[in-house]
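Attaching the record inline, Q. Sequence:
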Amino acid sequence: MTHRCKTKYVHEGRYVAEVDVEVIEDDTSWSPYLSVTDAYRLDSVRDALRRGDIKTAAALSRVYTLQPVAASQ
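Structure, as predicted:
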C-alpha cells in the first residue's frame, strides 16, 4: 500500500479551494482512493463554500476568489 500527497480543487461559485489530501494506492480495483477523513474534509470545504462560510473553508484549505478577465482584441 502506497500513500502520496495530492492537491484536490473544489470549485463553488466564485471561489476555489485547494485541499491537500492523501491518496492511497494498493492492489485492489478500488485504487487509488482517499481516506474517509480526507473525503469528509473535501465535503466540508464544499459545503462551507456553498454557504459562503469562507472562514471555515479557509481553516481546512487555501481559498481563492475567481474574477473574470476582460478579453482584449
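Residues 36-51 form the longest helix (16 residues). The chain has one domain: 2-65.

More tomorrow.
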